[in-house]
Amino acid sequence: MIRLTRRYGFSASHRLHSQQLDETANRQIYGKCNNPFGHGHNYVVEVSVKGRVDPETGLAVELSALDNLVKRIVIEPFDHRNLNEEVSEFGSLVPTTENLAVVIDQRLRAAWPAGFPRLEKIRIAETERNIFEVNG
Amino acid sequence: MIRLTRRYGFSASHRLHSQQLDETANRQIYGKCNNPFGHGHNYVVEVSVKGRVDPETGLAVELSALDNLVKRIVIEPFDHRNLNEEVSEFGSLVPTTENLAVVIDQRLRAAWPAGFPRLEKIRIAETERNIFEVNG
Amino acid sequence: MIRLTRRYGFSASHRLHSQQLDETANRQIYGKCNNPFGHGHNYVVEVSVKGRVDPETGLAVELSALDNLVKRIVIEPFDHRNLNEEVSEFGSLVPTTENLAVVIDQRLRAAWPAGFPRLEKIRIAETERNIFEVNG
Amino acid sequence: MIRLTRRYGFSASHRLHSQQLDETANRQIYGKCNNPFGHGHNYVVEVSVKGRVDPETGLAVELSALDNLVKRIVIEPFDHRNLNEEVSEFGSLVPTTENLAVVIDQRLRAAWPAGFPRLEKIRIAETERNIFEVNG
Amino acid sequence: MIRLTRRYGFSASHRLHSQQLDETANRQIYGKCNNPFGHGHNYVVEVSVKGRVDPETGLAVELSALDNLVKRIVIEPFDHRNLNEEVSEFGSLVPTTENLAVVIDQRLRAAWPAGFPRLEKIRIAETERNIFEVNG
Amino acid sequence: MIRLTRRYGFSASHRLHSQQLDETANRQIYGKCNNPFGHGHNYVVEVSVKGRVDPETGLAVELSALDNLVKRIVIEPFDHRNLNEEVSEFGSLVPTTENLAVVIDQRLRAAWPAGFPRLEKIRIAETERNIFEVNG
Question: Cβ contacts (< 8 Å) between E135 and chain F: which residues?
Answer without folding.
Answer: 1, 3
